[in-house]
Specification:
Elements (H helix, E strand, L loop, with lengths): L7 E2 L2 E2 L15 H17 L1 H12 L5 E5 L5 H9 L4 E6 L12 E4 L2 H4 L7 E5 L7 H11 L4 E7 L3 H9 L6 H12 L6 H5 L7 E8 L3 E8 L1
Parallel strand pairs: 3-4, 3-6, 4-5, 6-7
Antiparallel strand pairs: 1-2, 7-9, 8-9
Length: 223
C-alpha cells in the first residue's frame, strides 16, 4: 500500500513509515521478542480486553467474527474463549500460527483482496489500520460495508504516547524500540477513522474514544 502524505492534525503530522517487524520471518528471534513485547503493550493498553468486552456486550447469538491483521492469533484466541458459540477467523499475510485451536479458521493472504467476499457479521482489528495510507483505508472502508459491526483499536497520535514509548525503551527489544514510535506517528486522532473508513452517520452508529495510555477505540454498528 502507498504511504500517502502527512496530514497536519494539530501539532503532530501523520507519517507512515515501514515497521521492522513486518519484514521479519515469524521464526526470526527478533520477531519472537517483538511479539512478546506487543503482548505486554497490549496488556498495558487494555486493547484486547476492551475488544472482547465490546463483543460480549453486543453479540448474543452465533455469528462469524473476522480479525484482520491477526498476527500470531492472540486476539483470536481470546475472542474464541469468550464467545465459543461464534466462529472466529483470522486474516493475515503470515501462515497459520502453531498451536492455534483447530476451531479457529485462518486465511493467509491479502485481506484487501478477499474481505469483501467474506460472509461474516463482525470485523475486528487491533493495531492494524495505522499501517495503511488514507486512500487504502477508504478502500478498506468500502469492504467493511458488508459487516454489521466493526471494532478497532489503534495508536493515538499524540505526544504523551510518544513519551511513554521512550520510557519503555529499557524494557523492550530493538525492533519494538523502532516500531512503537513509528506506529504512534502513523496513528489517529479522534474523528479521523470514521471519516477515512466512510462510516456514514445515516447508516452507522459510531462510538469513538481515546484514553491516556495511547489508544483510539472505535466501535460501529450498521442497521
Amino acid at each position: 500500500m502507498d504511504g500517502g502524505h502527512p496530514q497536519n492534525m494539530g501539532k503532530l503530522f501523520r507519517v507512515i513509515a515501514p515497521e521492522i517487524l513486518d519484514s521479519l520471518a515469524p521464526s526470526d528471534p527478533r520477531a519472537v521478542r517483538s511479539r512478546r513485547d506487543l503482548r505486554r503493550i497490549d496488556f498495558f493498553l487494555g486493547n484486547s480486553r476492551w475488544i472482547v468486552r465490546q463483543l460480549k456486550d453486543r453479540i448474543s447469538s452465533p455469528t462469524r467474527i473476522i480479525e484482520i491483521g491477526a498476527g500470531e492469533g492472540w486476539l483470536c484466541r481470546k475472542v474464541h474463549a469468550a464467545l465459543p458459540f461464534s466462529s472466529v477467523t483470522g486474516f493475515d499475510l503470515v501462515p497459520r500460527p502453531c498451536g492455534l485451536p483447530p476451531e479457529i479458521d485462518w486465511r493467509c493472504g491479502d485481506f484487501f483482496q478477499t474481505l469483501g467476499d467474506t460472509d461474516a457479521g463482525v470485523c475486528i482489528g487491533s493495531l492494524i489500520l495505522h499501517h495503511f495510507s488514507d486512500s487504502a483505508l477508504r478502500d478498506l472502508g468500502v469492504r467493511l460495508q458488508s459487516f454489521r459491526q466493526i471494532v478497532f483499536c489503534e495508536p493515538l497520535r499524540a505526544r504523551l504516547p510518544l513519551f511513554f514509548s521512550k520510557l519503555s525503551c529499557p524494557f523492550i527489544g530493538e525492533v519494538t524500540r523502532h516500531d512503537m514510535p513509528a506506529s504512534i506517528r502513523a496513528g489517529f486522532c479522534l474523528g479521523e477513522l470514521p471519516d477515512l473508513l466512510g462510516l456514514d452517520s445515516r447508516q452507522w452508529t459510531v462510538r469513538e474514544l481515546s484514553n491516556w495510555r495511547g489508544s483510539v477505540r472505535l466501535v460501529a454498528s450498521r442497521g
